[in-house]
Amino acid sequence: MNNNNYSNYKLLPFDTIKAATTGDIEAMSAVNRHFGGYIATLSVRPIRDEDGNEKYAVDEDIRRELEAKLAAAVLKFRVA
């Protein structure tokens, strides 16, 4: 019996990760799509509308910064 809690998650193929580390644009796009939901979740911030009501929305500046940090980390990573 497999008790792995991660068995339901789709992983990125190794070839895609390897290509992304070399700067392949399509592979990097696949990495961004894979982590896009997580990045959006981390980017959510409370905002107030003109009536003073608080709601939550994705802060685009934070989202872009996290995407840039992900790209930098992928490019630093070397796959043998």
Notes on the protein architecture:
- The chain is of the alpha+beta class and 80 residues long.
- Helix content is 54%, strand content 12%.
- It has one domain.
- Strand 1 and strand 2 form a beta hairpin.
Describe the SSE topology.
Elements: H1 14-21, H2 25-42, E1 44-48, E2 54-58, H3 60-76
Antiparallel strand pairs: 1-2
Helix pairs in contact: 1-2, 2-3
Features of the shown structure:
80 residues, alpha+beta, 2 strands, 54% helix, 12% strand
Secondary-structure element string: HHEEH
Average pLDDT confidence is 90
Put simply, the count of helices is 3
Helical/strand content category: alpha+beta
How helix-rich are the residues, as a percent range?
Answer: 40-55%
Query: How many β-strand runs?
Result: 2
* Distance separating the two termini: 32 Å
Alpha carbon gyration radius: 17 Å
Estimate the global geometry from the Cα principal axes: elongated
Biggest β-sheet, characterized?
Answer: 2 strands, antiparallel
Number of domains: 1
Quickly describe the structure.
The chain contains three helices and two strands; from the N terminus they run ααββα. It is of the alpha+beta class and 80 residues long. It has one domain (14-76).
